[in-house]
Each structure stands twice: as C-alpha cells, then as structure tokens.
Design goal:
By secondary structure, the protein is an all-alpha fold. About 75% of the residues lie in helices and about 0% in strands. The chain has 11 helices and no strands.
C-alpha cells in the first residue's frame, strides 16, 4: 500500500479502516455471548464489547471495500466522484458510526433486528461478486491482470464473510428465534472462526497491488540490502605479470 501511495495513487481508505478494525478484535476477548451483554461497566462486558465492535466494524468495511471494487467496473465514469466522496470526513465518520448503531441494537435487546442487519452483507457481497463477474466478462477494456485482481478481491471478501462471520450471524439469529438445538455445536466453533479474521484480512492488500508495483517494492528491498561502501577491485600490473 505504501508503494501505491508513493506512485501518486489514492490511499485505500476503506482497506486501511478494515485492517484498523482488526485491532479491536485482537485486544478484545469474547468473554460473554453478545446476547447476554448488558449496559453495565463490568470488565468482562467491556472486553466483549470491544471484540464485537471490531467484528461489526470489520463486516461494515468489507462491504465498503467490495462496493469500491464494484464501482471501478460498473460505474467507471463516476470513479472520480466516488473517490472524492470516499475521502470526505463526513463519510468516514458515518462508516465508523454505523457499527456503533448496529451494536446498540444488541445492547437494547433487539437481537432479531441485529441478526437481520448482519445478514444483509451476505446478499450485498453476493450481488457485488456476481455483477462484477458479469461486468468484467462483458468489458474488453480492462486488462486481464486487472480483471483477476478485482475479481479475486470480491471473491475473497465474499468467502471471508461466509466462512468466518456467517456462522456467528446464524448463531445469533438462532438464539434470537429461541432455536437452541441448532446452536449447540455451532457456538463451539463461532469464537474460533472469529479469531482468524485479523490473520486473513492482511492478504486483501495483495489484490490492490499490481505485479509491477510488487517488483518495484522487491527491487527496492534488494537495493537496501546491498552494502553502500562497495570498493571495486582493480587488477594491478604486478598481479597480471605474476599470473603470466
């Protein structure tokens, strides 16, 4: 990402925010299920709130990153306008305020609404993946490597949500509907899957970097490893005479 910014391109704000949300998941611990957290200030509740806030923020910015990739293909004529809107402070504050509003639904006991809101990204990410594939298939102006990067990003975001976060949403939905028989074994793997999120998200940055930028970054690393004070060896006349 630093190579991308140094080349004069816009910084991937949504992806940076997505990686920043992993900090909350790392430092928080799910000591309690989200449906049993109250509005008290106990240490267990605060640690669980920090963890679930990081999870919800991660899901929100996953949708933002997928929407950004989708607009690059579907609405190419409005890309400049979308970049300006994305970089505004009001939009950034709204994106960070959305997880707080979603978390307040769970704190106030609206677990069914909370589960339905977290189910919507599954539909949205599915639409972005399918329609991006359709737009790239119909478009001939996009380079082959660029198609693979955009489609790979959409596929990884969809499978990341489906594999890591969708079981958590289903578990919360079944608990809200009082279907405890379905959550007996599902709840055992939910927290384990959620803890894998911070280790998977950094791989998304590879889909934003072109092969040329990766080669430039690797060449810069090689140049830095070379010692600066290399003295060239000069063959003297006496050495050549002795060799003869």
């Amino acid at each position: 990402m630093s190579q991308q910014v140094s080349n004069g391109k816009a910084a991937p704000i949504y992806l940076i925010s997505l990686l920043a949300s992993d900090i909350f998941s790392i430092f928080g611990q799910p000591n309690k299920p989200i449906d049993s957290i109250t509005q008290t200030s106990t240490l267990a509740d605060i640690s669980s709130l920090v963890f679930y806030f990081g999870i919800i923020t991660n899901i929100v910015f996953m949708v933002c990153v997928a929407q950004e990739r989708y607009l690059l293909v579907a609405c190419t004529q409005h890309v400049a306008c979308c970049i300006k809107v994305k970089q505004s402070a009001i939009v950034s504050l709204a994106m960070w305020a959305a997880p707080i509003a979603i978390l307040m639904l769970a704190l106030n006991g609206y677990m069914l609404c909370f589960s339905i809101v977290l189910l919507l990204p599954f539909v949205v990410l599915s639409f972005f993946l399918v329609d991006t594939f359709r737009a790239l298939y119909c478009s001939r102006s996009v380079h082959v490597h660029e198609r693979k990067r955009i489609l790979g990003m959409q596929a990884m975001l969809f499978f990341n949500y489906s594999f890591l976060y969708f079981p958590f949403v289903l578990n919360t939905l079944f608990n809200a509907l009082s279907l405890k028989c379905y959550t007996q074994y599902l709840g055992l793997v939910v927290n384990a899957l959620l803890n894998f999120g911070p280790f998977v998200d950094p791989f998304l940055s590879f889909f934003l970097t072109k092969v040329k930028d990766l080669k430039q970054a690797c060449s810069c690393c090689k140049k830095r490893r070379k010692p600066v004070d290399e003295t060239p060896t000069v063959v003297t006349v006496s050495e050549t005479v002795t060799r003869l």
